[in-house]
Amino acid sequence: MSPDQLGFYTLLKKEVMRFWSVLGQTVTAPVITALLYLLVFAQALEGRASAYAGVSYTEFLVPGLIMMTVLQNSFANTSSSLTQSKVNGNIVFVQMAPIGPLEWFGAYVIAAMVRAALVATAMLVVTFPFVKLLPQQPLAMIAIFALASASLAVVGLIAGITSQKFDQLAAFTNFFINPLSFLSGVFYSVHALPRFWYHASHLNPFFYMIDGFRYGFFGKADVAIWQSLLWTGGFFLITSGICLWMLMTGYKMRR
Amino acid sequence: MTTPSQNAIDIVGVRKSYGSLQALKGVEFSIARGEFFGLLGPNGAGKSTLISTIAGLVSPDAGHIAVLGHDTVKDFRAARRKLGVVPQELVFDPFFKVVDMLRLQAGYYGAGREVWPWIDEMLERLDLASKRNSPMRALSGGMKRRVLIAQALVHKPPVVILDEPTAGVDVELRRTLWSFMADLHRQGQTVVLTTHYLEEAQEMCSRIAILDKGEIKALESTRQLLRRHPFRFLRLKLAGEAGLPDALRPLVSSEAEGVIELKLDTTQHPIGGVFDTLRSAGIAIEDVHTREPDLEDIFVELTQRESAS
Description:
The complex is a heterodimer of chains A (255) and B (309).
Chain A (H helix, E strand, L loop, with lengths): L2 H18 L2 H23 L11 H32 L3 H4 L5 H27 L10 H25 L3 H17 L12 H7 L3 H14 L6 H25 L6
Helix pairs in contact in A: 1-5, 2-3, 2-5, 3-5, 3-6, 3-7, 3-9, 5-6, 5-10, 6-9, 6-10, 9-10
Chain B lengths: L6 E12 L2 E12 L3 E5 L6 H9 L6 E6 L2 E2 L4 H6 L1 E4 L11 H11 L7 H10 L15 H13 L5 E5 L7 H16 L3 E5 L3 H7 L2 E6 L2 E7 H7 L2 E8 L13 E5 L2 E7 L5 H10 L4 E7 L3 H14 L1
Parallel strand pairs in B: 3-8, 3-9, 6-7, 7-8
Antiparallel strand pairs in B: 1-2, 1-4, 4-5, 9-10, 11-13, 11-14, 12-13
């Protein structure tokens, strides 16, 4: 392994070790929260007509809940790690090291994807007693998972770079991540929405991530899978471009 | 970009402003390989900005810096591999144990298991061996300072910058750190030290730069710097109730508990002349003591002269 590769691998390892050392907060807690959503919504709404023939409401709900949790945790992993390092000042250890912008980007994003994969797997396991979900389109499911998780990890990096304190990061979560997650069709099919909100949902990239993930399980969704892949891939490319520009220019990182 | 250089660090025309504040006003000097170099200056002089610029934490508005010939921007990987910086602030990553932190830090620089024995050696040398598996957040301030030093050295950099490493540490640790820095220098490493303890710089550094308001006010060997100011101090305790003659009053630099200290320019005020004046005034001397100027006197003179002008 070359010194540059070792630098990248070490940063990735450090980011994985960071969330691993507080697994209760980073994996167990979001799984429990998602389970509570499942229990409450499944109890309240089971029996309502599902969006797709042959799919119960609880079955419909689970992939959406998993993807929502994946998105929120991918964002949280990069944004909280970076903001915490900036607030503590220990970001200098990485800033002074011979690690380039691409390695920074790759290490933070991949670590967030590892956490997201753990959370998703744990959720699939704990919901299995309620719904026996097996992916009908595993490749599509994996592709959407990877693109969506990476995209939100990148958004988390952007939030971490631009935030100087936790208040600013909280504003990012409250005014951007949470509204887009909840208005993305996790709990309902967008076909059930009034016309305005139906169209508005189609401008929300999170909708395509959740809808595409659902397609992976059921082989059917509100929009075509290519549309979900295109939107999610496009979102990833745009956010990655912005993030890499920030890392390369030292925006809000180098004084 | 790599250029052959005999110097450990070349700083060329570095400028940095924060709004209307000019933190560095075209700073330019070099530090030779193997030097023990002191960078001194009052608070706000620009020392930390300069060090942060060398370390890549600050982007200069103009000018450039090279570490062992490697430009810190264009060839940042090579430059940073040659450099170890101990930051001034007690920063640490609360998630890790001491030994994990050091191994991770080595990995950032592309150093793997081959440096683990060196990490163990540093833990011993810095009295951290008993804390190797302690979480960083559980360490005292002094222990955290030692870990910071170990972190900067973990990849065996040939150039080490220590930004006020002995600030706020007890006497014992300060002595440990002095001995450690001296060992590093003996082993051939270039050491750059910023400190507020001027006797520390005087004791350890072979050459000194004094930075004030973003400009280099003095840059020469410690010995030359001490010689450059041809004054000495004469402490007198006069017998009885006699006061100092008016002719000597302008030379008083301090007066406390009956001891008067005169600052004498050796080219204009030979000590014999002071004694002659006292004898002529019929004043007897109870005790006398002379003191050569130390770095602190020169530092104060240089920085105050600028403030006055």
